[in-house]
Write a structure and sequence with these properties.
Layout (H helix, E strand, L loop, with lengths): L1 H19 L5 E6 L8 H5 L11 H13 L3 E9 L4 E8 L16 H7 L10 H18 L1
Parallel strand pairs: 1-3
Antiparallel strand pairs: 2-3
Length: about 140
Amino acid sequence: MLKQTYKIFLLLLIFTSFALAKNIKEVKVYNSKGEEIQSGFILNNIKSKPGTDLSPRILSSDIRRLYQTDEFINVETEFDEDAGVLKITVTRRPKLIEILIEGNKELDDEDIIDELDLVVDEALDEAVMASDKHNIKKMYDDEG
């Protein structure tokens, strides 16, 4: 009797897990302004795709993978269970457009630029920017 009850419980558990599985029908990507954007880059970097079941473990891994691309400073996800739509909202890391050297009196602009690790037209890396700031200050300290 106990064995049969156990089997029934196990079958109910299996069927319940299938019923609770949330299938992803569509993945939509939005920018931080709420505008839908092209999603090729993001879809190529995630495993949560249309036709697969939503998995918190895989979704967490997808978010981590998107951060590791260094293209985004924020990634948020939301799942609409009724529509089966996985919504991914990303905030891109700003790109460095131009480097301006102003206010320097003791050093040449070229000497300062030669010390910089920041690269124009690439994503702004705040750690590199802080390091460059430190290096410029050190150059001035060395000049006296």
